[in-house]
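Example pasted here:
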Amino acid sequence: MAATTSFLVGVTMIDYVLHCEAARLNAGQRSGSVGAPPITHSTLLTELERVHPRNGHRAAERAIMFADGLSANPGESLGRVRFEELGFVIPELQVRFDVDGRTYYVDYFWRGVRKIGEFDGHIKYTRAAEMAGRDIVQVVIDEKDRESVLRPEVNSFDRWGWKLALSPPAFYRFLMDKGVPRAPTRRRS
């Protein structure tokens, strides 16, 4: 698929596979079961060489190399692809913050400028499994409280959703306005 589709779709699919594999391996370690060997960047690259598609080999290789199983959902994958496409620094993913005896993970963290970025899809407000028995009001309050705890730990904290990230020009302006660091200019050979 990554050989025949867009970079965004390829990365999103591979991120999902790698994310699921990490979850499967963690569950196996907890239960003591071994299971099948993990799917990794290396196994995907080996498979790509084995099937060697006539078209799209370089596109698939690029998507595999860029993919990251720490992207927890398609919105986070979309953000990373946009950062790459628009020339911004690719942030660290799922960075842990320990504050007042509690642990928090953030979607994106630009350590050099101490900036948190969060993809704010609506699943956390609507999907029962994500809501964990809370009503929507409590979910919103909890998310606001989480942000209030994290803000003093960094220089800035910004959120965006699907509509903004799906519009490259609007997302570019947003990222520039919010001071997301630009990637060093790459020289073409």
